[in-house]
Amino acid sequence: MKCRKCGGRAVLELRRHNTAFCAGDFLDFFRHQTLETIRRWKMLSRDEPVLVAVSGGKDSLALWDVLLEAGYTTAGLYIDLGIFDYSRESKARCQAFAAGRDARLIVVSVAEEVGAGIPQVKDVTRRPTCSACGLSKRYIMNRAALDHGFGVVATGHNLDDEAATLLGSTLRWDESSLARQTPVLEVTHPKLARRIKPLFRLSERETAAYAFLRGIDYIVEECPFARGATSISHKEVLNRLEDVSPGSKASFLLGFLERARPRFQAGESVDLRECLRCGQTTTGEVCAFCKLADQVRRAAPRSAVPLGSAALEPTDPAPLRGLAADLSAASEIHAS
Amino acid sequence: MKCRKCGGRAVLELRRHNTAFCAGDFLDFFRHQTLETIRRWKMLSRDEPVLVAVSGGKDSLALWDVLLEAGYTTAGLYIDLGIFDYSRESKARCQAFAAGRDARLIVVSVAEEVGAGIPQVKDVTRRPTCSACGLSKRYIMNRAALDHGFGVVATGHNLDDEAATLLGSTLRWDESSLARQTPVLEVTHPKLARRIKPLFRLSERETAAYAFLRGIDYIVEECPFARGATSISHKEVLNRLEDVSPGSKASFLLGFLERARPRFQAGESVDLRECLRCGQTTTGEVCAFCKLADQVRRAAPRSAVPLGSAALEPTDPAPLRGLAADLSAASEIHAS
Question: For position B175, which CATH number holds?
Answer without folding.
Answer: 3.40.50.620
